[in-house]
Amino acid sequence: MRILVTGACGVVGTEVAERLAVEAAGRTGPDIVRTARRAGTTGTTGTVGTPGTGPVPWNIGAEPAPDPLTGRPWDVIVHTAASTRWTMSRQEATDANIRTLRAVLELAGPDTHVVHVSTAYVGGVRAPEDLRGEEFEGYRNGYEWSKSVCEEIVATDHRGPATVVRPPLVLGRRGDGRIGRFSGPYSLFPALVSGLAAVVVGDPDGYAEISPVDEVAEVIAGAALGAPPASPLTEVIAAGQDSMRLADLVRITCDTLNAFRAEHGVDPIAQPPTVSTDSWNRFFLPLAAQWLSPVQQEAVKLLAMFQSYTSMSEPFEPTRKVADPGGVMAASVLHWARSKPRQALGRTVPWTLIDAA
After folding, report:
1. pLDDT per residue over 294-307, tens digit each?
2. What are the tens digits of pLDDT across the range 29-49?
3. Residue 62: which residues within 8 A CB-CB, separation 6 or more?
4. Residues 330, 332, 336, 339: is their CA dihedral positive or negative?
5. What percent of the chain has pLDDT over 90?
6. Is 138 left (phi over 0), alpha (psi -120 to 50) or beta?
7. DSSP string covering 169-180, please?
8. Spatial CB neighbours of 283, under 8 Å, sequence gap ≥ 6
9. Whole-prediction pTM value?
10. Whole-angstrom Cα distance, residue 324 to residue 326?
11. I want to staple 261 with a disulfide (CB 3.0 to 4.6 A). Which of 13, 128, 266, 300 is the partner?
12. Any residues with CB less than 8 A from the CB of 136 and at least 6 apart, and which?
């Protein structure tokens, strides 16, 4: 069995490659090749388990597939490569995600099982105030829109078996909180410590879906190594009705940070108040534009994008359920704090009001 893993240096791709290597160790025949935009170590074969080799370098969509990836179709292609930036324009999202998928599918034959990593936010309920303009056709941003288009491409353009995996916000491993890179939801932690997140925007009872990266990788690796589905399959990884609420997420984050700070003799941070989205947009945001510093205004914009993911009116309907998401959150926050002690133990600076007029 020949398995290609794209995006093998990304948060999910790294975990998937490791999981595949472990699960394939006791089997005969799996040949797992990784690819990434840049090679991680010396070597060009990218084969997992071969000493001295790293991922095959391939800037997908911007250059032809390198020779080690061509010649004959793959049995399985696990496509994790993607840009997850919420601030992408439609053209940027097209180049980063849609064009790259089309290039990867050129390596697939009619019997290739394509395991495509999407996002749970292609589905679910989106509030009108979460939407960022007509160009994204009812989605919050270019990332979500492009992932929706990619799912359509997999369904219509690929002739072989396909599995779409939809994770929510991805945090660290369940046991120890480890993750390959701090991005996305991790922006909340330093913002809470520094004081940039002086308020939390959203409904305290809104749902905040997360999943540990190792369980996302488990679902993906299981699909890659298992029997291909007879018809297209979609796996949704979520806690559903057992998801954290926004108030839980903020409380667990602050409690975990404060326990870490107490161990080091540092004063606790205050848990910020919650402001409804309507109140924020109508009253606080216009004032922020006039009175906050440029750095604070940029933090406000980023956190505003984040809040729509942690204050959903309805949770997802999972096919793979995440147990105890609060425990996952605590482990992830603690791992971040231990990895970034200077930030985690930093001094909180209240918002400074200036006249920006």
Report:
1. 776 766 666 666 77
2. 678 999 998 765 433 444 544
3. none
4. positive
5. 65
6. left
7. EEE--TTT---S
8. none
9. 0.90
10. 5
11. 266
12. 90, 142, 144, 145
